[in-house]
Specification:
By secondary structure, the protein is mainly alpha-helical. It has a domain at 120-342: MetI-like (MetI-like fold), CATH 1.10.3720.10. It has helices at residues 2-13, 21-53, 59-63, 71-81, 87-99, 113-148, 153-167, 170-181, 199-236, 240-247, 252-281, 284-289, 295-303, 308-336, 338-342.
Length: 343
């Protein structure tokens, strides 16, 4: 009797299942995150427009600096640029341009903003992308070993150096490297125009120019990964599953590599993808110090105007990159963390 009764009751005791329930939850989760990203982007558009309007300086006077122009010519230029309209009307025009995929025309360079961003994004991705990749590798490696040897001389030295470099102003660190290295490395530009044509000479010259700005960024960025990885791994070290793994006789390095590090990586994933979003934004101070022709230097040049269309376009593109990478990080959590899928 027990077997048939238990079998008959089993469907009633089992939790109710909805066809595609897990898939529906995933879709709702993705839709929520995507909606949040869209709302954030809209807020960025509104904030960027009004924020740059309060910057000191007159774009028209900056454009005509050094030229003999009268009040009538200034007024005509304001009318041409649309700066004589009320702020509300300018905002409506700006939204209409964005709806057409038009970022406007730069006051300073007199070319479309999208063209300028397209020309400068390559050097920025090269510089910040290489620096970010190196910083991730160095920071995670040092952070893992510092946590596993907590309290040791290696832990104290690596953590102390990381905190020191992280607190140093980036532009100051770049200037120090320029002073220390002297004439060993170029101080500006991407490639020397006198470099012979050919893949190998051009590549070597590019790497020569890349060394100092990349080293400056790595010195500042790797500390974040070291500290986050060290903190995450310390929280995992006393977990029951690690005690069980050690009790089974696994070697210390296997316990760390196969069990502790994968779980400690979860907080680091968010940091990695946020910084990948910032790869597009570049580093304004580093690119300015080394005259690296990327988006960072372009932002600095736009602020001097202020070049309103260029600043607005850069702000939207850079914020959009961060939002996209943050969204990818949320999606990746669904893959690497079963606890997120369960909710």
């Amino acid at each position: 009797m027990i077997g048939p009764v238990s079998t008959a009751l089993a469907p009633d005791l089992a939790p109710p299942t909805t066809p595609g329930g897990r898939g529906g939850g995933t879709v709702r989760h993705l839709a929520t995150k995507l909606g949040g990203a869209v709302v954030s982007l809209l807020m960025v558009i509104v904030l960027g427009f009004f924020l740059f309007r309060v910057l000191p300086g007159d774009p028209v006077k900056t454009i005509t600096r050094g030229a003999p122009v009268g009040p009538q010519q200034l007024a005509a230029l304001r009318h041409e640029l649309g700066l004589d309209k009320p702020i509300a009307a300018q905002f409506v025009d700006y939204l209409a341009q964005l709806a057409r995929g038009d970022l406007g025309e730069s006051y300073q360079f007199r070319v479309p903003v999208s063209t300028l961003i397209g020309e400068r994004i390559g050097p920025t991705v090269l510089l910040v992308g290489v620096a970010t990749a190196l910083a991730i590798l160095v920071g995670l490696w040092l952070g893992t070993r510092a946590a596993w040897r907590r309290g040791s001389r290696f832990d104290r030295i690596s953590t102390g150096v990381a905190l020191l470099l992280w607190s140093a102003p980036t532009f100051w660190l770049g200037l120090v490297l320029l002073t220390v290295t002297g004439n060993l490395f170029p101080s500006q530009g991407l490639i020397n125009p006198n470099t012979p044509a050919g893949f190998l000479p051009q590549t070597l010259d590019l790497l020569h120019h890349l060394t100092l700005p990349c080293l400056t960024l790595v010195a500042v960025l790797y500390a974040q990964y070291l500290l986050v990885m060290r903190s995450s791994l310390l929280e995992e070290m006393n977990a029951d599953y690690l005690v069980t793994a050690k009790a089974k006789g696994l070697r210390d390095d296997l316990v760390r590599r196969r069990h502790a590090v994968p779980n400690a990586m979860l907080p680091t994933v968010t940091l990695i993808f946020l910084n990948l979003g910032l790869v597009v934004s570049g580093a304004v101070t580093v690119e300015t110090v080394f005259s690296w022709p990327g988006l960072g230097l372009l932002t600095y040049q736009a602020l001097q105007g202020p070049d309103l269309p260029l600043l607005q376009g850069l702000f939207v593109v850079l914020a959009g990159a961060v939002l996209v990478m943050n969204l990818i990080a949320e999606l990746l959590y669904q893959v690497i963390d079963p606890r997120v899928r369960a909710t």
